[in-house]
Amino acid sequence: MPSTLLSRRDLRFLLYDWLDVIRLTVRPRYAEHSRETFDAVLELAERVATEHFAPHNRAADLDEPTFDGRQVRLIPEIKAALDVFAETGLLASTLDESVGGMQLPHTVAAACFAWFQAANVATSAYPMLTLGNTNLLLAHGSPEQIDTWARPMIEGRFFGTMCLSEPHAGSSLADITTRAEPQADGTHRLYGTKMWISGGEHELGENIVHLVLARRPDGPPGVKGISLFIVPKLLLGPDGEPGERNDVALVGLNHKMGYRGTTNTLLSFGDGAHHPAGRAGAVGYLVGEPHQGLAQMFHMMNEARIGVGAGATALGYTGYLKSLEYARQRPQGRPLADKDPTAPQVPIVAHPDVKRMLLAQKSYVEGALALVLYSGRLLDEEKSAPEPADRARAHLLLDTLTPIVKSWPSQWCLAANDLAIQVHGGAGYTRDHDVEQHWRDNRLNPIHEGTHGIQALDLLGRKVTLRDGAGLAALAETIGMSVERARKIGGETTELAEQLAAAVRRLTDVTRRLWSDGDPQLALANATVYLEAAGHVVIAWMWLEQLLVVEAAGAAAPDADLYAGKRHAARWFFRYELPRTGPQFDLLASLDRTTLEMRDTWF
Q1: Are residues 488 and 581 both part of a single domain?
Q2: pLDDT for 14-34, tens place per residue?
Q3: Which of 381, 436, 449, 551 is catalytic?
Q4: Which of 12, 208, 393, 452 is 20 to 30 A removed from 265 (C-alpha atoms)?
Q5: Could you tell me which residue ranges the Acyl-CoA oxidase/dehydrogenase middle domain spans (predicted)?
Q6: Active site residue 181
Q7: Residue 527 and residue 564: Cα distance in Å, rounded?
Q8: Distances (CA, A) of 394 to 162, 292, 388
């Protein structure tokens, strides 16, 4: 039976027919792999996700974490699933062999992890955060820190977090006040409070490795004075095993609308709840040089942002498949042209308005999945392309696209979940079907790891202006190459390509217009509109790329229904979705000041 988590057919199309990941195996980093190994890990991921993650998705939502003042309680199925996940070795799938990794391409690993996110996004958050923590330490930690903290996380023994926000500061990291006082033995003692820390307290492993942003006394004000510290829940004894409790205390759990299986915590560092070495203060270990903490943390933050986009995509995708299955099985009504009340009812999938909702979902989730996997492909190029110029270009493109990868799926795959509920009708508004939980779970994704508005400021305020617009120029040039290929085909494909080319020109012109007056406040006043329009242009490109594969296959398409569905979804996106950008670009080009001129007393 086809899975209702993800589509194997679509993953094969994207990985092999479009992105041609097999070509990566000629490169030294991936030389040990083949189509057989890729298929094997994908099959393993699907099986473990289906058998161990999906079954407790609803249970973890209904029986959310509790704290009795001493210990956090989670349903036992979460730990059991994570133990199985650790045994697969998938946490280390992309890591170097030297640290126990498989050196699997990021493109394939992203496809594998999507199965877990679709099956149970809350349980999958624990390994996602742990891998991001590990990758940061591998990039910025000392050899001793890698051996001490990263290797146990790779083995699945320790879990990791990222501790940035504080109750008074939220996303404004320049205002954090957690302090780190240097000690004579080279360690630091940390004092402060961190809020919204996912995975901040649990008993799922032997230890929790917190990566904490804090200020040393010699740090300058603002973000330039932030340093990064390893602060474990349990300090290690002489034998390297977890022992004494560090002065890190859980103040309370945040009670969430969705995503409930992931503990979300308020943590206190150094309040004297515990006394390591006989006194208060959370023991921390400086990562790298002082005052470089935010730059180092962006290594994990950018990875997490792509992971959030991938999770949003997976939730939208499984909601789409479940609403499609429901629409095929639910009989109701008759075709409008059929006036015979005694005629058999038809499945609701036959009704045009239901097709509209399913097509919209398909265009959103399959477009978003293509973008997530394309991001993985860029990361593979950055790590393994033979030419330095190609690696640098891949890095530039990925850096430019990251806000879109995070935010477009978070907005539009959430919209897909909304449509999945609508397809179910009244049944979708009950807890009898998964789609209402998928919507609640997905509603977090436009918020965490940088809100939708923050991603918009990042895209328009930094990414497209950096190095005199090099990122936007590289994106436009890359899309232009797709357009040129499409122009050679003729017919509808060329028409869609010209529509995309016009949208890219408009995006470039509007970007220049927004910054023409040199007024950042005016340029960024409608940054969110810019992000949405730019995201739609990028997803239209993803659909043109898929359409090019369909056209190249022609009558020899290995899966006629799949390829026909791709063609129709591409047509839908260009006819129903890309035109949204026209009024958005018009608004942006007008340098509208409505939001700037609105006063708080007028609300």
Answers
A1: yes
A2: 999 999 999 999 999 999 999
A3: 449
A4: 452
A5: 162-269
A6: no
A7: 36
A8: 26, 25, 10
